[in-house]
Amino acid sequence: MLAGLALILALAFVFARLARRLRQPAVMGEIIAGLALGPSLLGLLPGRPADLLFPADTRPLLQALAQLGLVLFMFGVGYQFDVARLRGSGRQVTAVSLSSVALPFVLGAGLAVSLYPWYDSSQLRTEGVLAPALFLGAAMSITAFPVLARIIAEQGMQRTRVGAMALACAAIEDFLAWCVLAVIVVIATASGPWPLVRMVLESALFLLFLVYVVRPGLRRLPAPGRGRTGGSSFVHAVLVTGLLLSAWATSAIGLHAVFGAFAFGAAVPRDRVEGFAPEVAERIEQTSLFLLPVFFTVTGLSVDLGGLGGRGVLVVVAVIAVACTGKFAGAACAARLSGIPGRESVALGVLLNARGLTELVILNVGLGLGVLDGRLFTAMVLMALVTTLMTGPLLQRLGCGQEFRRSPGPSGHDRERGVRLR
Q: Distance (Å, rounded) from C-alpha 114 to C-alpha 118?
């Protein structure tokens, strides 16, 4: 395991550097490195080196490290989630957000119904097409908020109207998609009406506990120098303990652990923590970034491009076409109809089409639930890569780096309404 872990981290660093040279987010290089260590590339070499580097008895250890990195990352996503972006977001942002969620959701659910006869039923754990259709619709609706923020920063679009709107829309879309995914998890795992009701009640009690007990309690954390427990080390221990317990709680309820970590991160009073211990969140983020390449490798071990076959290639093409059509058309058309100029509407559609890391998180949840098979999982991973890698070049073709940088950014009133890049 130690040798495999060393290879994962070294290869992730090299691919991240290559991605930056190609003007792509570093995380995309790490994702490709993880896929390369799986059967899609390394497995093609003679002697089955993938099985030698990652034998069966070490994979549970790698999965544990990947799970830890994933919950730490989801805590960071929740911690950076700005509820202000959801308040007073305006007619245009609301219209674009709802349209770019509804259209890909409908198209994705329809695609799942069409492809259901091709599903490998031995890999599914649910009966009927309802859960797979709802899951594929939710997976098509997601936007990679963390990667999108990085792309907007690298394109110099932080202070433009398009960049601010894209971040506001992505926040709303991810909020809706995670809510829908939570409902799908409940539907897929509940074995009857009473277990379904129990999971809903327990989930509601967990959220109420976070809002009315945990959040007020965290606001009373002592500042450095006050009392024996003051200091960032104490805050660090409290936050890590809280996020791990929250991840365990949602897993015990029947949801995935990522929901608990995300909810705890969103409940943390960021203004209070950053007021006297701003380095704590950065420490947790650095730890997650250190472990995420393991998550990408575990994902890559489930992706087999060589096993797609003729039907698999058709599935990949259909998935990419539906994903791009639903997101781009839903965002760009709604933006144009709400009065945004044509080129800015196109740029907004391109930005919101990026899936990236968030998509991989959702796909691993679905694979664990048994609502999609290995072939569709591979196709969806490829879709996440393609839609994210194409974002930067398309924005450059549109001239976003020059023209939009000269366009007026959001007004002070808009910034007060939360549509700014933190």
A: 9
